[in-house]
Amino acid sequence: KMAQHVNVNSLYDRQVRLWGHESQNKLIKSKPFIIGNNLVAEDVIKNLLLSGVRDILIFNESRKEGDFNGIFFCNNSLLDLKEKFIDFNPLANPTVITLSEISQEDWNCITSVCITD
After folding, report:
1. 65: which DSSP letter?
2. Mind telling me which residue stretches traverse the membrane in this protein (predicted)?
3. Of 60, 62, 67, 85, whose Cβ has the fewest other Cβ atoms within 10 Å?
4. Which phi and psi (to 5°) does residue 97 adopt?
Protein backbone atom coordinates (compact mmCIF):
# COMPACT_ATOMS: atom_id res chain seq x y z
CA LYS A 1 0.00 0.00 0.00
CA MET A 2 1.01 3.56 -0.66
CA ALA A 3 2.26 5.81 2.14
CA GLN A 4 -0.25 8.29 3.57
CA HIS A 5 1.87 11.30 2.59
CA VAL A 6 2.00 11.36 -1.18
CA ASN A 7 3.50 13.93 -3.51
CA VAL A 8 0.57 14.86 -5.74
CA ASN A 9 2.95 16.37 -8.31
CA SER A 10 4.65 13.05 -8.95
CA LEU A 11 1.56 10.85 -8.56
CA TYR A 12 -0.54 12.83 -11.05
CA ASP A 13 2.30 14.34 -13.08
CA ARG A 14 0.66 13.98 -16.50
CA GLN A 15 -2.64 15.39 -15.33
CA VAL A 16 -0.98 18.32 -13.56
CA ARG A 17 0.90 19.13 -16.77
CA LEU A 18 -2.34 18.95 -18.74
CA TRP A 19 -4.69 21.03 -16.58
CA GLY A 20 -2.54 22.45 -13.76
CA HIS A 21 -2.29 22.13 -9.99
CA GLU A 22 -5.45 24.06 -9.17
CA SER A 23 -7.66 21.87 -11.34
CA GLN A 24 -6.04 18.67 -10.05
CA ASN A 25 -6.61 19.79 -6.45
CA LYS A 26 -10.28 20.51 -7.23
CA LEU A 27 -10.58 17.04 -8.70
CA ILE A 28 -8.95 15.42 -5.67
CA LYS A 29 -11.26 17.32 -3.29
CA SER A 30 -14.44 16.60 -5.26
CA LYS A 31 -17.10 14.22 -3.96
CA PRO A 32 -19.17 12.71 -6.78
CA PHE A 33 -22.33 10.71 -6.14
CA ILE A 34 -22.76 7.78 -8.54
CA ILE A 35 -26.21 6.25 -9.01
CA GLY A 36 -26.37 3.04 -11.02
CA ASN A 37 -24.96 -0.47 -10.84
CA ASN A 38 -23.99 -1.13 -14.43
CA LEU A 39 -21.03 -0.96 -16.82
CA VAL A 40 -21.40 2.78 -17.36
CA ALA A 41 -21.33 3.49 -13.62
CA GLU A 42 -18.39 1.13 -13.24
CA ASP A 43 -16.42 2.93 -15.94
CA VAL A 44 -17.21 6.32 -14.42
CA ILE A 45 -16.03 5.11 -11.00
CA LYS A 46 -12.83 3.64 -12.46
CA ASN A 47 -12.00 6.83 -14.36
CA LEU A 48 -12.72 9.06 -11.38
CA LEU A 49 -10.48 6.94 -9.16
CA LEU A 50 -7.66 6.90 -11.72
CA SER A 51 -7.87 10.67 -12.10
CA GLY A 52 -7.35 11.19 -8.37
CA VAL A 53 -10.83 11.55 -6.90
CA ARG A 54 -10.72 10.22 -3.35
CA ASP A 55 -14.24 10.47 -1.94
CA ILE A 56 -16.94 8.81 -4.02
CA LEU A 57 -20.45 8.01 -2.82
CA ILE A 58 -21.92 5.03 -4.65
CA PHE A 59 -25.65 4.52 -4.36
CA ASN A 60 -26.87 0.96 -3.91
CA GLU A 61 -30.30 0.66 -2.37
CA SER A 62 -30.32 -3.12 -2.11
CA ARG A 63 -26.78 -3.72 -0.83
CA LYS A 64 -26.84 -7.34 -1.92
CA GLU A 65 -24.11 -9.47 -3.43
CA GLY A 66 -23.82 -9.59 -7.17
CA ASP A 67 -25.12 -6.03 -7.65
CA PHE A 68 -21.92 -4.94 -9.37
CA ASN A 69 -21.46 -7.29 -12.31
CA GLY A 70 -19.06 -5.72 -14.73
CA ILE A 71 -15.59 -5.94 -16.13
CA PHE A 72 -13.50 -4.68 -13.21
CA PHE A 73 -15.77 -5.42 -10.29
CA CYS A 74 -17.31 -8.62 -11.65
CA ASN A 75 -19.50 -10.58 -9.26
CA ASN A 76 -18.05 -8.91 -6.19
CA SER A 77 -19.76 -8.59 -2.89
CA LEU A 78 -20.09 -5.07 -1.59
CA LEU A 79 -17.53 -5.90 1.08
CA ASP A 80 -14.92 -6.64 -1.59
CA LEU A 81 -15.68 -3.54 -3.64
CA LYS A 82 -13.75 -1.09 -1.47
CA GLU A 83 -10.56 -3.13 -1.93
CA LYS A 84 -11.13 -3.22 -5.70
CA PHE A 85 -11.64 0.54 -5.78
CA ILE A 86 -8.50 1.12 -3.72
CA ASP A 87 -6.51 -0.92 -6.26
CA PHE A 88 -7.21 1.91 -8.72
CA ASN A 89 -6.42 4.66 -6.21
CA PRO A 90 -4.77 3.73 -2.89
CA LEU A 91 -5.81 7.10 -1.46
CA ALA A 92 -9.47 6.54 -2.31
CA ASN A 93 -12.22 6.49 0.27
CA PRO A 94 -15.24 5.14 -1.62
CA THR A 95 -18.50 4.60 0.22
CA VAL A 96 -21.32 2.33 -0.93
CA ILE A 97 -24.45 3.80 0.59
CA THR A 98 -28.24 3.70 0.53
CA LEU A 99 -30.37 6.85 0.33
CA SER A 100 -31.46 6.47 3.95
CA GLU A 101 -27.80 6.44 5.04
CA ILE A 102 -26.86 9.69 3.32
CA SER A 103 -26.47 12.43 5.90
CA GLN A 104 -27.14 16.13 5.44
CA GLU A 105 -23.37 16.62 5.59
CA ASP A 106 -22.98 14.19 2.65
CA TRP A 107 -25.57 16.11 0.63
CA ASN A 108 -23.79 19.39 1.38
CA CYS A 109 -20.41 17.99 0.23
CA ILE A 110 -21.52 16.29 -3.00
CA THR A 111 -19.96 18.16 -5.93
CA SER A 112 -21.50 16.23 -8.84
CA VAL A 113 -24.04 13.52 -9.54
CA CYS A 114 -23.87 10.83 -12.23
CA ILE A 115 -27.02 8.79 -12.86
CA THR A 116 -26.83 5.75 -15.13
CA ASP A 117 -29.46 3.30 -16.24
Report:
1. T
2. none
3. 62
4. -145, 155
